Amino acid sequence: MDQEYGDGREETTPFSEAELVYLSQHQLARVATSSADGQPHVVPVVYEFDGKYAYFSGWNLRKSLKFKNILINPKVAIVVDDLKTVSPWKPRGIELRGRAEVLRERGSYCVRVTIDSKRSWGLD
Asked: Any idea of the CA torsion for 58, 109, 82, 15, to the nearest 10 degrees?
């Protein structure tokens, strides 16, 4: 569980084995960004997770609203979730919150997210 401090910052506990396995078995996530006036924007992305950072890019990333929002406000949330079973209803997933940073390598752009906090459910 994450620990919250009085000044609003959170310290992330290490990822559990179940969380690491879950994140390595999935590729599709939803990324939430926010515009300068606070308007939320959520879109699906293909992601990679290396145990510390989450990465995503996308076709024509520089022209996307998520890219423009990240340049204004680097705070993002990423949700990876699915249904383990429908009957009985068993949702599972993980939410990652952090700070996005635009990287450019060999002429291509991608976004690296430094994870500040996490919350998971149903990963038993």
From this structure: 170
Structure tokens that stand for 114 in this block? 């430094």
80-124 per-position pLDDT tens digit: 999 999 999 999 999 999 999 999 988 899 999 999 999 999 998
Tokens 């969380």, located at residue: 19
- pTM equals 0.86
CA–CA gap between residue 86 and residue 83 (Å, rounded)? 6
Structure-token pair, residue 78: 């990423």
User: In order of start, what are the domains of the chain with their CATH numbers?
Assistant: 3-121 (2.30.110.10)
- Would you say the C-alpha torsion 64, 103, 11, 19 has a positive or negative sign? positive
Query: How many residues make up the chain in this entry?
Result: 124
49 forms beta bridges with 54
